[in-house]
């Protein structure tokens, strides 16, 4: 139960905050997740992870552990009537998701440095840098998804996250921009 809870929370956090957890979770976050499950019944300073997503049990033993994990996440548990044989069905209708991100940094000379798949690329203005980064992020994510069997019917989502800070006297400092492309869709079956 603990391992399933830990994996679900890890996936939710990575999906919600991809730039924070792009490498992996450190031991402190993992320990916090584990303790939030173990201490879920206590009311003094609880660490609470929850989701609006329903947990759907697929496979024979899910009815044993999934209800407790759903309860810990303050969400609904759904175990379909044919859950015991659903693994085979789930394999047939699987989804693919591929994410790639590219970082852009402002240079002292006013140009922008893009850390792309082919290495560093320099652009003179932010518009060109964003267009290049978005195209390359989509290209890499799509190539990865296609290598996993992505069908021709897929979705593309692009996020641009710009980080800034305020220095003394209110001057804004550009800390960089991350362009994230997500490709998702079904597996192509021939």
What does this molecule look like?
- The protein is α+β, with helices and mostly antiparallel strands.
- It folds into two domains: 2-91, no CATH class; 94-187, Translation Initiation Factor IF3, CATH 3.30.110.
- Helix content is 35%, strand content 31%.
- The chain is built from five helices and seven strands, in the order ααβαβαβββαββ.
- A five-stranded antiparallel sheet has the order 5-4-3-7-6, covered by helices on one side.
- Helix 1 packs across helix 2.
- The chain is flat and about 60 Å long.
- It starts with a helix and ends with a strand.
| Structural domains: how many | 2
Q: How many whole angstroms does the radius of gyration measure?
A: 21 Å
Helix content: 25-40%
Tertiary shape: flat
Q: Name the structural class.
A: alpha+beta
CA distance, first residue to last residue? 37 Å
The name CATH uses for the topology of the largest domain is: Translation Initiation Factor IF3
What is the β-strand count?
7
Secondary-structure element pattern, one letter each: HHEHEHEEEHEE
Please indicate the percent range of residues in DSSP E strands (runs of 2 or more).
25-35%
CATH architecture of the largest domain: 2-Layer Sandwich
Regarding CATH, which class of the largest domain? Alpha Beta
Largest sheet: 5 strands, antiparallel
In terms of quaternary structure, what is this?
Answer: single chain
What integer is the average pLDDT? Answer: 84
Helix count equals 5
Question: Which regions are unreliable across 5 or more consecutive residues at pLDDT < 50?
Answer: none
Spatial strand sequence of the major β-sheet: 5-4-3-7-6
């Amino acid at each position: 139960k603990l391992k399933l809870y830990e994996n679900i929370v890890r996936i939710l956090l990575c999906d919600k905050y991809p730039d924070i957890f792009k490498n992996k979770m450190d031991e402190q976050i993992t320990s916090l997740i584990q303790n939030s499950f173990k201490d879920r019944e206590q009311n003094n300073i609880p660490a609470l992870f929850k989701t609006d997503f329903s947990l759907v049990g697929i496979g024979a033993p899910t009815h044993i552990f999934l209800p407790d994990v759903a309860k810990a996440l303050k969400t609904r548990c759904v175990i379909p009537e044919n859950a015991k044989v659903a693994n085979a069905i789930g394999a047939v209708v699987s989804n693919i998701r591929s994410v790639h991100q590219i970082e852009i940094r402002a240079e002292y000379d006013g140009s922008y440095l893009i850390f792309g798949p082919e290495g560093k690329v320099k652009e003179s203005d932010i518009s060109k840098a964003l267009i290049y980064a978005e195209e390359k992020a989509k290209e890499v994510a799509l190539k990865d998804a296609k290598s996993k069997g992505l069908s021709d019917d897929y979705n593309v989502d692009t996020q641009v996250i710009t980080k800034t800070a305020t220095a003394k006297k209110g001057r804004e400092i550009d800390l960089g921009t991350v362009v994230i492309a997500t490709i998702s869709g079904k597996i192509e079956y021939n």
